[in-house]
Amino acid sequence: MLATSPASYSFSSATQHLKRSVMRDLLKHAVDPNIISLAGGLPANEALPLTQLQACLDEVLHRDGAKALQYGPPYAPLKAWLADYMRGRGVQCDAENIFITNGNQHGLQILSRLFVNEGDTAVIEEAVFTGVQQITAGAGAHILTIPTDTSTGADMDALEAAFAQHPQMAVLIPDFHNPLGVSLSAEKRQRAAELAGKYGVPLVEDDPYSALRFSGAMLPPIKAYDTSGFVFYLGSFSKMLAPALRLGWMIVPDELLAKITVIRESLDLESSTLTQRTVAEFLQRGYLVPHLDQMNRLNQERCAALLAALDTHLGDIASWTLPDGGLFTWVTLPENVNTWDMLPEAIANKVVYIPGAAFAVNGGATNAMRLNFSALPAEKFDEAISRLKQVINNYLK
Ligand SMILES: Cc1ncc(COP(=O)(O)O)c(C=O)c1O
C-alpha cells in the first residue's frame, strides 16, 4: 500500500461520463473452473497460432536486431499488406491511407477525439458492445439509438432519421455484431455509405469480426461503397490472430492523416515496432489463410453444437440469432425471464453468460443474453444449456 495522506483530487470532465464496463466485472465471476462460461468474447486458446507467431518473432529478432526493439515509424511492409488486403475487399486505398492502431478500441477512441465534443450527438445501435458506448456516451455525447434487425442488421430508415438531426458521429458493426451475432446485408452497407455522404456524418465501421466467417460469402465492407470520404473503417488483428497483439488498422483519407497522427501521438506515440514486424512476417509467410480456415472450422463446429443444445433445451421457449461467423449468438427468452436477476442463480448452478441488459443503451433487453461459442469444446454445450434451463425453469413458473 502507498503511504499517503488523504488527498482531495479534482477530476477532469472526461471522467464524468465514463462507466466501468459491467461485462468485465461479470467475467470476474467465471474463475471457478467448474463454471461453464458462455460469457467470453475471445478466440479459443487452442486456436491461437502460437508456433507460427513464435517462428515469426524469432525471425524478426534475428533478422532486424535492435531495429525491432526501437521506436519506429509505422512498419511499411505491414501497411502495404493491409492496403492490398483491403483492396481485395473492394476498398480503394493506398498504403499511405493505412493508419496502424493498437486495435479497434484504440481506433474508436482516436475517432471519437477527432469528431466528438462533450454535448455533441452520436448515433449507435440500441444494443451494442460496451466499448462503443464508452467512446460516445462516455465522451459526454448525447446518444441517439437505432434498432437492429436480427437478420439484416441496423435499421437504415432509423439511421437516416438520426442523420437528419445532424449528429457528429455514428458507429456500426458490419459483421457478426457484438452482441447480436448478425451481419449487415449488402444493400444496407451500400445505403449506410450513401447516407453518411448525403448527410455529411462521419460513420465509423467497427470491424473486428469479418475474417471470422465460417459460412456464406464475405461481404464488402461499408467502406467499399464510400464515395464521400465519410466512412471510417477500423480493422483489428485481435480476433483474427490474437487479442494480446493489440494491433489494428484504420483507413484514413489523405487530408486527415496529419490530424489523426497528432491525436494518436498525444495518446501513446506509436504501435509496437516488434509486434508490427512479427505480424507482417506472419502475413507475408502466408500463414493467415490456413490459420483462419482452422479457427473458423472449429468455431463452426462449436456454434453448431451450441445451436443444437439451444434447440434441445430451450427450443420451445426461446429464439436466437443464427450466426455465419464471429463469436456470439443472441438468445431471447420469454418476457418474464430477467437474465440480469437470474445471473447469480446461473453462477450458483455453474454456468455464466452476459445478460442482454449489459449491452442495452436505453435499458431493455432484460430477457436476452449473449452466448459465446468459440471458447468451449463442442461437447460442453449440452451440459451448459441444460444447466441454464434448470435456472430458467424457476422463472417460468
Ligand atoms: C465490436 C467490437 N469493437 C471493438 C472491440 C475491441 O477490439 P480490439 O481488441 O481490436 O481493441 C471489440 C472487442 O470485443 C468488439 O467486439
List keywords for this structure.
single chain, 397 residues, alpha/beta, seven-stranded mixed sheet, four-stranded antiparallel sheet, 14% strand, binds pyridoxal-5'-phosphate
Question: How would you describe this protein?
Answer:
- This protein is 38% helix and 14% strand.
- The longest helix is centred in the C-terminal third of the chain and has 27 residues, at 288-314.
- With 397 residues, it is of the alpha/beta class.
- It contains twelve helices and 15 strands.
- It is globular, with a radius of gyration of 21 Å.
- The structure holds pyridoxal-5'-phosphate.
SSE map:
Layout: H1 22-27, E1 36-37, H2 50-64, H3 76-88, E2 98-101, H4 104-115, E3 121-125, H5 130-134, E4 142-146, E5 148-149, E6 153-154, H6 156-163, E7 169-172, H7 186-199, E8 203-207, E9 231-236, E10 248-251, H8 257-268, H9 273-284, H10 288-314, E11 319-320, E12 328-332, H11 339-348, E13 351-352, E14 354-355, E15 368-372, H12 381-396
